[in-house]
Amino acid sequence: MKAKLEGPRKCHMTDASLVGTLLPGFCEGEAIEPLKWEKVTLEIILAPMANNWEVGATESMLAAYRAALNLLFKDFNKIAEWRALGPNMSTIMTGWKKRIARNKKETGKNIEKGVTALPFKLYAHLSKHLAMKDKTGPFSWCYSTLLWNLMCRSDSISYVNLNHIKVKDDHLIIYFAQSKTDQEGRLAKHPKAIFGNPLNPWVCPLTALGAYLVCITTRTEVGNSTCPLFQGSQSETATRFRKLLQSLLCTVELEDFGLSSECIGTHSYRKGAATYCSSGGTACPSSSAISVRAGWSQPGVEDTYRRYDGAGDEHVGRVVTGLPMHSEELALIAPTFIPSTDEEEKFIQECLHKCMDSSQINVGVARRCLASLVYHLDILREDLPANHKLWADSLMKDRVLCTRLKSLIFCGYEGEDLATKNDLRATGVPPHCSMLRQLKQVEREVGKLAPNLENHMSMLPQIIQSALDEAVEEGKIEGAPITTANLEHTITRVIGTELGDLHQILGRRQELVPPQQQAQERSLSDYGLLPFRKLLEKFEVPSMTLRQAWQHWSRGDTTSFGRPWRLIQPSEIGERKARERLKRYRKLMLAFQEKVPRDAWKEDGTFEEYEAMFEAVKGQFQFNSNTALKRRHGELSWETILSLKYKKQRSS
What we know:
The protein is mainly alpha-helical. It is built from 27 helices and 5 strands. The chain starts with a helix and ends with a helix.
């Protein structure tokens, strides 16, 4: 009870009048007597806040003062009395909040509540400078990266235990037995995923943890199962990091980031990590997964509709570690040892025992952390001072052993040969990363083909010209127009492949050939050909049987001046109805011609040859209706056959 009022008192939100009224004798150090609830009024409760307004009240102070009073009434089972005071107190609190907002507007005070969220760029800058401290570097670097990646309060980091750090798939997981918002430990079964960052060692929690584990010594007695990660008491650990951070902030030029050292604290890590995950890009993890990781409640839906799931937390873990969320690099598998022989595995085990205390550290955790540390060792050697604690370790100083260790490390993508062989899978990867990686692979393959393709395309116009000249000399298109079928047959025979864009190729050829030569090639007389005579003005396809339609298609008649009707284009006919009728006729005849075997078709065949083609194909165009009417297929007009063909297609 005394502590409930001491909390506000420490924040200058209470005074002796309130304490003396509610707890007689408290100020004089005498024994606490029962509270005199009959004297409690709204004016007495709010008097300390009103009297001490000059200390600079904030919204958080008002909330803390109200929460303390609420708990006091609740503990003494005075809920009815508290509810009676509630409406009036809410009105007064609202007025005080308006007063605080107006004061900020008039004086220009900081608008943000509490400390400022730490930007990711500044977090990376601070982590690098913390790591470079020769004596405190391993501790502050590890503490900083874990504080950011776990997205929790500073006090929670100080309670991390080595027994609660495990390995799962391609990452580490850390359990929290208890936290400020989970006093009963309901969420202890939901670990937080920690991923490595192969692109930047200063923000990689696995590298920082590996450096710290290499630098620390055995701290526990034999038989003692307590294995805290950080030395000293929990409160001392958190205070130690806070002082190191404040000392660094005094030397960093925060003006470049638009901040000051007064508005940054250890809680800025928690705010900054959550802000970066939720608003640092357009492909961020879900807000529910971020809330679960940060330990924020989701009233009404928590543990009912929105629950913890490993995939969501793993996505958050990949993003918060600093991997680019809009790139395929988000799917990178952190450095891991992949020995191919028993001798290499034995060498890795010897190195682990040489640099870490395997009796206290999980072997899987030690392997992952050492792999990340060795993978980034070249960068660390360039930036860390020569007297850094990390270089006191014999393994870290031995360049030959570290080079051999690095040769046994894999860092890449799922699906690569080595990853597939060792069953390495990337977890927490959103689908757009896989698609981006596939597009990159296609881009690389196309880049390899581009030079050869350009050379072949530059030679294509000359190849087509040579093929056409050869066809004319051999008489293969003599006495008839240069049709699409002749061109396709000749080009396919010479080149052996289909053309992707004939119009583009011919356009490029015209750019390469001089205008005089183009005009000469466009002349039909060079091939011994004459232009077709113009059709009659009222030309129209009549109604006739399929056999007659085929005869006109293959041989023509006097109305087309002996030209086969397959060569008549709709653009030659001016009347719309006649033009549409020709289009329907062409659809049926083209379908009929496609059924003719390729080796049997001839552009300039005889009457008997075209009749043989008709007899071979006509059976495929005898369609029966669903009625009892018996069809006389030889007497049906081509229009009726086309209609029956459409009906059959729709029914199938």
